[in-house]
Design a protein that fits this description.
By secondary structure, the protein is mainly β. Helices cover 9% and strands 27% of the residues. It has one domain.
């Protein structure tokens, strides 16, 4: 599945755009007649400027999930090939 263009995480030296109100990185970039604005999908606010902050996670699965355990598992444990 390809990400929608407005949801692609923009980067400024490894930072992500975050909402200045709720501090979540759930912003979508919007083009309006007045120029570019940001919309926060978490707190549902429109802002003119995003706060740029470092990523809080690497985007991988939570270490407590089955997906994380399977990624860390040895393929020989499952009879598969590496």
């Amino acid at each position: 599945m390809k990400p929608r263009a407005d949801r692609i995480q923009l980067s400024r030296e490894g930072k992500v755009p975050a909402c200045p109100h709720c501090e979540r990185a759930t912003l979508s970039k919007r083009q309006t007649d007045d120029g570019t604005r940001w919309y926060c999908r978490q707190c549902l606010t429109h802002v003119d400027e995003a706060d740029w902050r470092p990523r809080r996670s690497d985007g991988g699965p939570n270490s407590e999930t089955l997906a994380a355990r399977l990624m860390d598992a040895d393929p020989d444990d499952f009879g598969g090939q590496a």
